[in-house]
Amino acid sequence: MSLAPVPTGPPSNGIQEQQERWERKRARTGRELVRTEQRYCHQLELVNTYFVEILKAKGTLRQDIRESIFSSIKAIHSLNQTLLAYLEDGMFGPGFERFCQHLNHYTVYVDNIHNANKVLQMTLKKNKAFRRFKKLQESRPEFRNTILEDLLPLPLQRIQQYKYFLRDLTENTLPDSPESAALSGAVKAVSEVAQRIQDNARSHENQLQLRRIQKLLTGCKSKVLVPGRWYIREGWLRAVPPKGTEVKPKMFFLFSDVLLLTTPCSPLHPTNGDKFCCQRVYALQDCTVGKVFGHTKSQGGLISLTFTEEKLLLMSSDQEDINDWYRSLSSAVGQLASRTTVVHKRDNLCRRPLRSAQAQSEPSTPSVGPSQPQPVRKRNMVAAETTGQCEGPPHSPRLPPGGGGASAMKKMRLTDAPAESAPESAGSSCVIL
Questions:
Q1: Among 70, 81, 227, 408, which is 20 to 30 Å from 26 by CA?
Q2: What is the model's pTM?
Q3: Does residue 157 carry a pLDDT above 50?
Q4: Does the pLDDT at position 368 exceed 60?
């Protein structure tokens, strides 16, 4: 057995290994980005060539309908062709920096996507020539059994993909690299558009829910489509009556600001057999939510809702369901109260004490004794007496008829003169008897 020391090489450079690992990940992300961008640009070209351009040349659709369906997809195609040229040259930072300068084309497309789908379905239903044209174009081998409804949402899906590609590129780029700042800015800009897509989708889904519930309800109190209202949940609960009558199940619809109590219509009704009659609308503005039963793992529970003039008890035999209702109600009431508190707080900060023009223009006068009349009150009385006799400012003295204005003004000056010259006479040594 040899005891000779084993030769060892130089210590590994951890920083260099980390940089090499970053470069491998960056190269792998870049290859995937270029491959998917090429396919994406090809799909955009199909829409522009076989739909937008040919429809414009043939005049099958009016210009307003064509723009409503395809929106800014032509500008998006041109923008992404430029981006693809940068990506194929490995210039990810400059490419996305220029791309983000024209993200407004994507913003326009994102805001119009739901309207585009609606107009497309209506046009297919009413325009037989367009229906035939669409079917003919989709049968081309270039489309590979892809229909127009699958191609229109591609820009929205691509924005979501850009967010993850850019995040991976930024994480695997050296901080002191010239592309690091450009990629970081692109991540922020693309993430804002991606968030806008999610907000629009959420708002659209909420509108669909509100319209669905509006069609289910009957009665004069069943107005559901209110701006700013959000749908939360619905379900069957038993409303405990204040008196000992029979407890019947009710259908409740919970929104961000109100709770609707409804009962099913008679199944024998010719038109409203599958609808609900709205009986009560409870505003959540001043509501207090409490759990009476259901703290343990027992079956079911009871929720207490206290309003300004009424108290409501809701009961369910399903433990999980009653817990979900309690969380939903508490969250809705809490969010509504927090928004109201912020509004009131800002309103109080913006308020200013109201003062009359007279109080702002007149200086403060010293206090007078109990036997002396207050000058301000006296002037107000004079103004009140002369209001019906002359037109002029409320505090201007009334001039006697017959041209006595000069003498009246002279009397006022003589009356006010001692008050003005009082300090001078007090300091004089001459006494007039």
A1: 81
A2: 0.69
A3: yes
A4: no
365 pLDDT exceeds 90?
Answer: no
Distance of CA 286 to the CA centre of its chain: 23
Mean pLDDT (the chain, rounded) = 80
Share of the chain above pLDDT 70, in %: 73
